[in-house]
């Protein structure tokens, strides 16, 4: 039998797969920044993520709003002459829920990008570091503002349904919105800075809770000791060293709020300017620290 013939080598073929230049609109940095903001804000409430991711933020949102709904029901049914709680006091009372929300969502917003090393992909183009930090900061502020302002809106609508004085309620509602806006800015900055220090979400959660609870516990303890020793002035100044008492001092001085300090010994208007300057400095400092942090990430 004749020897088997060797198979002919395969011929190279060039396929035209139709590469074309992109001729559509180039949306640029502003679109990328808005998209990152929207994605981060939705992610804070688990929207666009798995069902498990929605459970905790939605539960905390419900817990935040439930007392307001109960107060409205009591005010309407009992025909009260005023709401059971001031607008400016509500967030102070519910600070534990706010802290849990921040501790859960701030690491979700930034730690995952650090852990999976996706930050360099953001910074490839067209987005820059300032866009990333601004979008993340604005998204966390917005998430916290929604969490804290929604109960105030429930209280305000309920007060109008109970036929309470429109001018007084509108003034109180506006003061409450200013208060929770400052609180949201402050907490967003602190939470993101702490969470951005580690790529591990669990460590970020624990660190945020520790910063908020330990600082408040220490300040409250020292204020209690100062009260027992009749050092009233020290009570007011100690509020500078905790985020929630810092907000409390500002709203006491400028928003006609009753102070949560021991026996209501809040800062005076003059001391309130110091509180306001410190609060604004912490917010600006948090933004600056985030910018510095992301100069080194992934490079």
TrEMBL record:
Transmembrane segments: 55-78, 90-107, 137-161, 173-197, 203-222, 234-257, 269-290
GO CC, any one term: plasma membrane
Protein name: Uncharacterized protein
Claim: Transmembrane helix is one of the keywords in the record: yes
An example Gene Ontology molecular-function term: ABC-type transporter activity
Phylogenetic classification of the source organism: Bacteria, Bacillati, Actinomycetota, Actinomycetes, Streptosporangiales
One Pfam assignment: ABC2_membrane_2
Keywords: Membrane, Transmembrane, Transmembrane helix
Superkingdom of the organism of origin: Bacteria
Species annotation: Streptosporangium nondiastaticum
